[in-house]
Amino acid sequence: MKILSKIISYVFHPLLAPTIGIFIILNFISYLSAIPPNAKMWLYILVFVTTFLFPAISLLFLLWQKLITNVEIEDNKERLLPIIISLGFYYMGYYILGINNVSGLLRAFYLSAIISISISFFINIFWKISAHMIGIGGLAGLILAISFIQSLNLLLVFIFTILLAGIIGSARIKLKAHNSLQIIAGFYLGMITVIATLFLY
Question: Model pTM?
């Protein structure tokens, strides 16, 4: 069971949430689904590189320099430096989207990820919150926001996301990475931040 929980934690790593979110936006928002394939691919690559690839490489570098104990970063104080580095890459992606006049909704979702990570930085100074649940909570919030903005019935997609959140949360608890409160707090932080940002942007 522990091996399965580790697999789930790696497959649904929080750094992948922005890329999944952009995929959802580009395929569920009607006026964005018509974007040319090459433009979509450019967006996928940009988001993947700035929110997953570069932060992941920086984690490995920090591990090599012995600035973190392991890539899971179990100590909340050890999370602070990786969060700052990740924020730098996220801001880079957000800036590139801006200078290329990319749709406001895409930038709003990207901004919500930056806000979530920024809040988690301050929380991690004194308490450990689940980054995995911030990621999946953000996706749940994105689906809810899109369903209202576009008047779409995404109930089944939302239910699937909630079930997935339960699986991820259970895996994190099984690994003793977090307690129930840290799991719930992470989920709601991610969901509320995305919903608020998309409606206020």
Answer: 0.91
